[in-house]
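Researcher: Good morning. I'm working through a list of sequences from a screen, and I'd like to move beyond sequence-only analysis. For each chain I'm collecting a predicted structure so we can compare shapes side by side. This is the next one on the list. No need for commentary yet; just the structure.
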Amino acid sequence: MSEFRLPAAAHIGYVHLRVSDLSAALDFYGRLLGLHQVVHKHNTAYLSANQNRPYHILLTEVAGARPKPPRTTGLYHVAIRLPDRPALARVLKRLMDHGWPLQGAADHGVSEAIYLADPDGSGIELYTDRPRNQWVWSNGQLVMVTEPLDVGALLDTIRDDLRPSRSIDPRTDIGHVHLHVSDLGRAEAFYSGLLGFEVTQRSYPGALFLAAGGYHHHLGLNIWAGRGAPPPPSDAAGLIAFEVQLPDRASWETLVRRLDEAGQPYEPQKRNGSADAVQLYDPDGNGVLLVSG
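Model: Good morning. Structure tokens for this chain:
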């Protein structure tokens, strides 16, 4: 099978999560993070940063869903990307004002990030990118570090805000998804060899980072839950699926032909009256939806 790389404009669309209590999840994603509920169908809420499509987070309630057990595959975190430092600072301040526990903060060189968990324990990263001209490449790999974040300097960017917004910045989107996997080589073969993401960083211990178009990463993969880790129970809270959006139908059709050539099973999904999306699963059972832009 010939080599294939995703178009530069490919990106992560929405992330679909299973939650145990939709009201509690909406309080967190809506009141605290500032996302807007656009649609509510049956037991699923569709949330967006801009009060319209595209959706960024889907929340499906499964009564009695249990926390994802430790040392299992699945979601490590979903990374919500803010457009600039003041936008990130406003969400951080709202979380701090409401006493929501934070799990960490880091300066990654390419970005500044805050880490926390939703009410079900699903990992959340809130981050903003540094300009691309400040990113450093070395020997074909993007240099990413984990250094302390100057939280005070971040909050100083909104010191003069007189009326802090209760909503998240409408330019917010999903920057990347980071997964626990059972085998890095097998995951790389799927996401890079088959789907066409490029590896941007493979020197971080136990992890691999992949992207389209020279981004630092649209996907993070790690074996920090243990090599050969089992999948979580089917009723555990956490990731159901995430979208990979391709910019045009031609590139989407090329990728679907690759799936056929590789014998990769998938299920066509109807969108806007036509089959322009397919659902498949990675080697660890994480749902991936390939969508034509």
